[in-house]
Write a structure and sequence with these properties.
6-stranded antiparallel beta barrel, 6-stranded antiparallel β-barrel, binds arginine, Thrombin, subunit H, globular, about 25% helix, Alpha-Beta Plaits, alpha+beta
Length: about 400
């Protein structure tokens, strides 16, 4: 009886207005929760900036007066921005496209070069290169068909990774040849007190990959600089180093973990001659006997001096099975290393090439960094090919330090 009365009172206590309040409060809580979830899943998508250039060919700046120049310039900029806006709003990337801005218009002999920065927001699971290709294709298609502006479609370039302007003409560092201008725009020279010590490879506008052993004697950024271009003197561009990240497990004289990252200050602006290379995925595989390229300012023979001019050589990947044979390197080849060169010798990296790139080209002429010049017995000797730090093995380590 007591129970019944109790229940009765409670039921009566929940007046309709109270139920309404409870429902409203419940809905509010649910709404806020959903809102927060949506907010966080959207803000998980970072803004991404893509830089592209193209040439507007009928845009001669016949400027007699400052004023007409300025007027024309503003017009062109606006027309270009509208064109890019339309391009992406009408494309299947419209949900990801945010905006664009023409950051530079440069008069050239037969037109104007437009530098555009495009902003997108993507979910973070797709490779940047894949997106770059999509963006490039969409722009290319539109530019070819547009009447609003006469744009040379083949002039379109998205400043992605691993692209260069010079075609490959490599015969075959030791036994190599001088590199043509802009052929290896990711190659850098690491210098201590202005003396070349090692090679390094540009992987973003601030980060380079190199070998850990380069910093054995000078582990702090003091005194270190990085230069770009096909000659050390004069350099095309020079930067200070603000941070050196040597692999925490590198212990000289052991040769495992021979990898380091270097951060530049200030960042570089990509040009035809200074560009980043692409990094492979950790799971990428490159079969033995593939032709790869090594570049560096290193010595031409064992005991020789570093060179002022960048050199290149084509070599072949050598399987671990072959490289671990007793007459080659046997047990000295351990995890995170691979061999490249020829068992007959001749073409090889040498002192001063350390830290520099071993690269490969895919079917779309995009270049990838596979190895870092690490060590070798002498240079170019029979059965003693070059040994390289394997980038795929350290791919996650690189990502963890640089976010790339
Ligand atoms: N460790 C050398 C350096 O400091 C480069 C070794 C490469 N040697 C070779 N035979 N592949 O520059």
């Amino acid at each position: 009886m007591y129970r019944t009365v109790g229940l009765d009172t409670k039921t009566r206590g929940l007046a309709p207005w109270m139920i309404a309040v409870i429902v409203v409060v419940g809905l509010l809580i649910a709404g806020i929760t959903i809102g927060l979830l949506v907010y966080f899943s959207v803000s998980d998508q970072k803004l991404e900036y893509y830089h592209g250039t193209f040439k507007i060919s009928d845009a001669q700046l016949n400027a007699n007066t400052e004023q007409s120049y300025a007027y024309h310039y503003k017009d062109l900029r606006e027309m270009s921005e509208i064109l890019v806006d339309e391009t992406f709003m009408d494309s299947n990337l419209n949900k990801h496209y945010i905006k664009n801005q023409v950051v530079k218009l440069t008069p050239e002999i037969d037109g104007m070069r437009a530098d555009v920065v495009m902003v997108f927001q993507f979910p973070s699971n797709e490779k940047r290169e894949t997106r770059e290709k999509k963006i490039h294709n969409i722009l290319h298609q539109k530019i070819r068909n547009t009447r609003a502006l006469k744009i040379n479609a083949s002039s379109l370039q998205l400043n992605g990774c691993g692209k260069r302007v010079t075609p490959t003409i490599v015969n075959r560092i030791v036994g190599g040849e001088i590199a043509p201008k802009a052929a290896w725009p990711w190659q850098a020279s690491l210098q201590h007190n202005n003396v070349h010590q090692c090679g390094a490879t540009l992987i973003s506008n601030t980060w380079l990959v190199t070998a850990a052993h380069c910093f054995k004697n000078n582990p702090t950024p003091n005194g270190w600089t990085v230069s770009f271009g096909t000659t050390i003197n004069p350099p095309l561009m020079k930067r200070n180093i603000k941070r050196i990240v040597v692999h925490e497990r590198y212990r000289s004289p052991a040769r495992e973990y021979d990898i380091a990252l270097v951060q530049l200050s200030p960042q570089v602006t990509f040009t035809e001659d200074v560009r980043r290379i692409c990094l492979p995925d950790a799971s990428d595989y490159f079969p033995p006997t593939s032709t790869v390229y090594i570049t560096g300012y290193g010595a031409l023979l064992y005991g020789g001096d570093s060179q002022n001019e960048l050199r290149q050589a084509a070599v072949e990947l050598i399987s671990n099975e072959i490289c671990k044979q007793p007459q080659v390197y046997g047990k000295e080849i351990t995890y995170g290393m691979f061999c490249a060169g020829f068992l007959e010798g001749i073409y090889d990296a040498c002192r001063g090439d350390s830290g520099g790139p071993l690269v490969v080209k895919d079917s779309t002429d995009t270049w990838y960094l596979l190895g870092i010049v690490s060590w070798g017995d002498n240079c170019g000797r029979v059965n003693k090919p070059g040994v390289y730090t394997q980038i795929t093995y350290y791919r996650k380590w690189i990502a963890s330090k640089t976010g790339l």
